[in-house]
Amino acid sequence: MSEQTAAATPAQTQPETTRKVPLRSPVTDIYETRDALVLLMEMPGVDANDVEIAVDNRVLTVTGRSSAKAPPGCTLVHAEYRDADYQRAFTLSDAVDPSRIDAVAADGVLRLTVPKAAPEPARRIAVRRA
Asked: What are the start and end residues of every segment in region (Disordered) (predicted)?
């Protein structure tokens, strides 16, 4: 081993790693009420703190990360549950108000309420002479 290589080795004690888990598209049901759209997204194992929701150029993007944790005082003996990352994007129409989206996570289901936009009132447009 050359001196240059040996000098560089101690700084590389923490190798760069990637998260090798599947990327899943969460199963989603969409309901409509008089005032909003309601999205129910199945994201098992995802804590509310591990969910990110963003709206950019009327595209709603939801991402989440699950990680299996042993209950307190337990030691893992056999595992079949696997960690997963979730991601799904929806294009929002002008009929909804993305600034008022509400999100609640409980029991592996993320509930997004997307309020409808207030309809613009009808108006008359005056015509001018050229």
From this structure: 1-24
Q: Let me know how long the chain is.
A: 130
Residue-wise pLDDT for 49-106, tens only, equals 999 999 999 999 999 999 877 889 998 888 887 889 999 999 999 999 999 999 999 9
Measured over the CA atoms of residue 43, residue 46, residue 47 and residue 52, the dihedral's sign is negative
3-state secondary structure of 20: coil
Q: 111 lies in a domain? A: yes
* Number of domains composing the chain: 1
- Whichever domain contains 111, its CATH number is 2.60.40.790
pLDDT tens, residue by residue, 107-122: 999 999 999 998 888 9
Q: How many CB atoms lie within 10 A of CB 93?
A: 10
Kindly report the number of other CB atoms within 10 A of residue 85's CB atom: 17
User: Which of 116, 117, 115, 103 lies closest to 26 in space, CA to CA?
Assistant: 103
Indicate the burial class of 6 (C-beta count within 10 angstroms; 0-12, 13-18, 19 or more). exposed
